[in-house]
Write a structure and sequence with these properties.
The protein contains 2 helices and 11 strands, in the order ααβββββββββββ. It has about 230 residues and is an alpha+beta fold. The strands form 2 sheets. Strands 1, 2, 4, 8, 10 and 11 form a 6-stranded antiparallel beta sheet that branches. Strands 3, 5, 6, 7 and 9 form a 5-stranded antiparallel beta sheet that branches. Strand 5 and strand 6 form a beta hairpin. The protein is rod-shaped, with a radius of gyration of 33 Å.
Length: about 230
C-alpha cells in the first residue's frame, strides 16, 4: 500500500513468528515501511530545510519570530510608592540627601538591557522656590550634565508654589534611560539636591508648613524601573 502519512496515520500489519514470508507479503511489508519513513522524513525536513511545509523550516521561522518579539520589549517592572512624608536639611552648593524609602531595586536579566527609570515626586522647600532631585544607582550618580561648569547638575528641577512652598507642592516628573551593563541587583535612589547657596530644608509629599487644615495637601510619590531588552 502507499503511505497515508501525513494526511492520516498508516495502519501497518505486524507479522507474527508463524506467518509465512508471503502472508503478509514480505516485500509489501518493507515497501510500506519505506514509504512511511520517507513521508516522515519529508514532513520533518532536513537540517536548515527550505521546504516551507517541513517542521524544520517552521520551527526555524518560529524561533526567528520569537527572537524579534523579545527585542526592545519590557522584560520586568519594579515599582515603589512612597505614601509617607519626608524632610531633609541639605547644605548649599550642590549637596544632596537620599530620600528615605524612595528607591527601587531591580536585577537585570542581561547585561545588554537598559533600565527605564520613571516616576513622579511632589515636594516643597523651606526658604526658596527651587526644588531639584537626582537619582543614583548603587551610590553612584547617573546624571551627567554636559559642561555644567560651576552650575549644579540635577536630573530635574522645578519652582515651588506659594510663598516658600507654604501653600502647595511642586510636581517633579522624572524619566531617564540607564545602561548599567550588569546582571547584579541595582538600587535606584531618589535624592534631593540643593542648587542654592544656603542650607535648605526640602519636604516630600507635603507643603512646607504642613498645617493640618483643608487648605493644605498631602501627596504620594513613586518610582518605577523597567528592564528593556536590547
Amino acid at each position: 500500500m502507499a503511505t497515508n502519512f501525513p494526511a492520516s496515520l498508516d495502519s501497518l500489519t505486524n507479522p507474527t513468528s508463524s506467518d509465512s514470508l508471503n502472508s503478509p507479503s514480505h516485500s509489501a511489508q518493507h515497501a510500506n515501511v519505506n514509504d512511511a519513513v520517507e513521508a516522515l522524513q519529508a514532513k520533518v525536513g532536513v537540517d536548515s530545510s527550505a521546504v516551507t511545509s517541513s517542521l524544520d523550516y517552521k520551527v526555524a521561522q518560529l524561533e526567528s519570530d520569537v527572537s524579534g518579539l523579545v527585542t526592545g520589549k519590557i522584560l520586568q517592572v519594579v515599582s515603589t510608592t512612597k505614601t509617607d512624608t519626608f524632610s531633609a536639611s541639605v547644605a548649599g552648593n550642590g549637596a544632596n540627601s537620599n530620600v528615605t524609602g524612595f528607591s527601587a531595586t531591580i536585577t537585570p536579566s542581561s547585561t545588554s538591557s537598559t533600565i527605564y527609570v520613571v516616576g513622579m515626586a511632589y515636594g516643597s522647600s523651606s526658604t526658596s522656590f527651587f526644588i531639584s532631585i537626582d537619582i543614583d544607582r548603587n551610590g553612584t550618580n547617573i546624571i551627567n550634565a554636559a559642561s555644567p561648569s560651576l552650575r549644579t547638575p540635577a536630573l530635574v528641577g522645578t519652582r515651588g508654589l506659594g510663598t516658600n512652598g507654604q501653600y502647595g507642592m511642586a510636581q517633579i516628573p522624572f524619566a531617564i534611560m540607564d545602561s548599567p551593563a550588569s546582571i547584579s541587583a541595582l538600587t535606584y535612589q531618589v535624592r534631593f539636591v540643593n542648587t542654592t547657596a544656603s542650607t535648605e530644608t526640602f519636604y516630600l509629599n507635603r507643603t512646607e508648613d504642613d498645617l493640618d487644615n483643608s487648605q493644605r495637601g498631602r501627596a504620594i510619590s513613586a518610582i518605577t524601573l523597567m528592564e528593556v531588552s536590547a
